[in-house]
Amino acid sequence: MTTNVLILCTHNSARSVLSEGMLNHLAAKAGKDVRAYSAGSAPSGRLNPFALEALTQAGVDVSGYRSKSWDEFTTPDAPPLSIVITVCDSAAAEQCPVFFGGNGQPVKVHWGYPDPSNAEGGDEGKRRAFELTRQAIGYRMLQLLALPLDTMSKAELQHALADIAKS
After folding, report:
1. Which of 5, 7, 8, 9 is labelled catalytic?
2. Of 27, 88, 119, 161, which one is the catalytic site residue?
3. Could you confirm whether 9 is annotated as catalytic?
């Protein structure tokens, strides 16, 4: 059964998009049945071009990516979610809607990253910040993919994802 992961950030334009891209890319390379999605509580309606550039340079196909609301994942016909990860502090502090999971509510965890959009140093500073953020996200996604997702209880998964947040 596919493990569906929703990654949330307020505007769904940078960190959540980097996370969706990296998890899908790494899962495909590893042959894992994991599917990532991203969304925001107040989507900007546009993707940050530096996020798309960082993903593209890492070999990630970004065609079809768009900024979208987390409301798309609250309907009964949405993919059944196993995991919800917040990647920005403002989204972590918000009251998440009810997400439908195959087994009740999904496991939720916060993996915070500083906003690379706020990097100093002009475009080159932002490019560096986005690449470093992409690498940090990729490291955690590799750890997620190393978990025995099909055999873990919700409590075990919650604990393992919280441990990854500390790395």
Report:
1. 9
2. 88
3. yes
Phi, psi for residue 7 in degrees, rounded to 5:
-110, 125
Question: What is residue 88's predicted lDDT score, i.e. its pLDDT?
Answer: 85
Classify 136 as helix, strand or coil. helix
Please give the model's pTM, rounded to 2 decimal places: 0.93
Strand partners, 107: 83
Per-position DSSP letters for 48-74, written without gaps between them: -HHHHHHHHHTT---TT----BGGGGS
In angstroms, the CA 79 to CA 81 distance is 6
36, 84, 92, 96: the catalytic one is 96
Is the torsion defined by CA of 53, 47, 128, 26 positive or negative?
A: negative
Closest CA to 110 of 39, 58, 162: 162
Residue 46: CB partners within 8 Å, gap ≥ 6? 13, 67
**Active-site residue flag, 96:** yes
pLDDT tens-digit readout, 25-69: 999 999 999 999 999 988 999 999 999 999 999 999 999 999 999
Please enumerate, as own/partner, the contacts of 89-94 that have beta carbons within 8 Å and a separation of 24 or more: 90/10, 91/8, 91/9, 91/10, 91/40, 91/41, 94/10, 94/41
